[in-house]
Design goal:
CATH topology of the largest domain: Rossmann fold
Strand order of the largest sheet: 5-4-6-7-10
Bound molecules: nicotinamide-adenine-dinucleotide
Helix content: 40-55%
Strand content: 15-25%
CATH superfamily of the largest domain: NAD(P)-binding Rossmann-like Domain
Amino acid sequence: PEKLIDGKAFAEGLRKQIAAEVQVLRDQHGIQPGLAVVMVGEDPASDVYVRSKCKQTGECGMLSVERRLPADTSENELLLLVEALNKDPAIHGILVQLPLPRHINADRVLNTIVPEKDVDGFHPVNVGLLSTGGQALVPCTPLGCSLLLKDRLGDMSGMNAVVIGRSNIVGKPMAQLLLKENCTVTLAHSRTRDLPAVVKAADIVVAAVGIPEMVKGEWIKDGATVIDVGINRLPGSAEGKSRLVGDVETAEAAKHAAGITPVPGGVGPMTIACLLRNTLTACKRLHGLED
Ligand code: NAD
């Protein structure tokens, strides 16, 4: 197979499949899945994400509800909005875009979303369900990585998988998903000793650190599969055009790896596709039509 793992193409296919399922839901059950995206204040990066989330939601036939609140919205006002969305029968998925302004307790807000509509998979109930093997809604980015790995590798039983980064959003749920696939999982982080040696033993490397090109090409075992979650914006040349790089030295790593995701065009597009998938899943479950 191709060395570069084309997340953009895979995500496109996934979105087509979701759109077809949405059509079936509408035709056979008269149900339209609905996703509400809530954003507080103005953050340019969040703005880009929210816009493309809402656009893609509409494109696959779902109801897209965008709620933008001013930066000085109180925590209480936001909690009231979340509670209203919890009760709204047209809404099956609720996403509160992070980061939130500092005067708002993000955990309190995220924990107020009912777990059944928590399409980001951040609610402690979903975290617990994922780790105990229940019917969880799984965080979108690690879910996307897992789909790419399954597509590329098939059965991952017994493989050594190293996840670098232990965030609640990516690293920890990624480790859980690999464990579910019967990998032998190592969760590495900023205090890990001799990271190069840890990575060298891995058949699967998932890098989610947030440091540009920190994983060196020569660390990668021959034949390994590398998933690069990092999205790091580097200031560009004199013209000031910035460029995106991952957490892995892609070109050098590709000399050893059997497969590797590029940045951009790897994991990034999978994240929104998985958000749509989670919304569809939540909708089916809320209507007792799953799985
Ligand atoms: P985070 O900052 O919450 O976590 C980073 C983790 O890296 C921490 O657990 C830390 O222990 C570990 N770490 C830091 N320095 C290290 C070192 N020197 N060696 C080993 N481990 C180290 O970040 P996050 O939210 O998990 O995101 C990680 C990266 O993934 C970022 O670049 C982010 O932009 C990107 N990201 C991409 C998507 C996507 O859609 N593709 C989604 C979420 C995050």
